[in-house]
Amino acid sequence: MLRAGLKWMFLIIGTTIGAGYASGRELWQFFGHESGLAIVLFMLFFSICCYVIMDLSYQKKSTHYLPVLRDIVGKRLTKIYDVMIFLYLFTTTVVMIAGSGATGQAFNFSYWWGIVIIVIALIALFMRDINGILSMNQIVLPLLLGGLLFILFLFTHDQELALFSHWHEQRNWMAAFPFTALNILPLIAVLGAIGNKVSSKQEIAIACFGSGAILGVISYVYNNSLIQIADEILLYEIPLFAILKGYPFEMLIFMSVMLWFAIFTTAAAGVLGIVTRIQEFLKIPLVLIVVLILVTMIPLTTFGFSTLISYIYPIYGVLNLYVLTRLLLFPVWNSMKKAE
């Protein structure tokens, strides 16, 4: 039970911690100054939403997201949000591929080399179906999370940063809503595809509340670290590199590799959501669908990593607020339906 719960927990975290999050760009876009309460609210909202999605998926034994989505948004809006989820997964996977190109540029490699490497790796991964993603998450994510927390706490200590010194300044608390909404939509797609593999509600609780707690702690420490270098962030495509600039080169190499894997796990989760949906219509091998999707994505990466995040993420964050409201109030609506 614990092992299975951790497996799903890493799938949730792997879906959420992608190029935008791990690089610091997404956190800075939504949070920044006076956001401590916003991050605590995000942790709570995220855990509840994940639990509702995963519980629905488990009850329906679903293999793709549509049955789960229908229960969340209702029959009338299902078609609209089906298209929205597909477009969201598509565009954010483009952001991940662009993030791989940006990571390569940090080491003076060609932007296109970074893109070619991630595309080949994704095709190879899907030759093993969903088991390849789960196995990779269980190996890579503990290293990524441990490394990220180590560097952030080291930076916090070096800057003599008091993590709880600004709790009287919380004007940005509303940012919790669009930030949670942004991160929930891909989880409907990914968790909706694994309902037939979940075997107990205990697994769901471990996965959802464990991932919420871990993401909340990392978000809080990371955001406080970024506040200290606010003036320098504009100079960096990837804000994490601004934090790392004073540290040994070996640490920069290690975190760059881990950042790339964070990008890769989220790209893989996005592709998983897309291909499980497309398989309903196209009865062709999974790997072939993956190749076709990736070929159509490559030209869109020319817009650049930070540009894509700046425009796409806030738009989806607002559009997804309805889904967030439905998820947070789902237990209330569900109990009202049963009472009728």
From TrEMBL:
Q: Which InterPro entries match?
A: YkvI-like
Q: Which UniProt keywords apply?
A: Membrane, Transmembrane, Transmembrane helix
Q: Does the keyword Plastid apply?
A: no
Q: What is this protein called?
A: Membrane protein YkvI
Mark the transmembrane ranges: 38-58, 79-98, 110-127, 139-156, 176-195, 204-222, 251-274, 286-305, 311-333
Q: Which residues form a coiled coil?
A: none
Q: Which organism is it from?
A: Virgibacillus indicus
What's the source species' lineage?
Answer: Bacteria, Bacillati, Bacillota, Bacilli, Bacillales
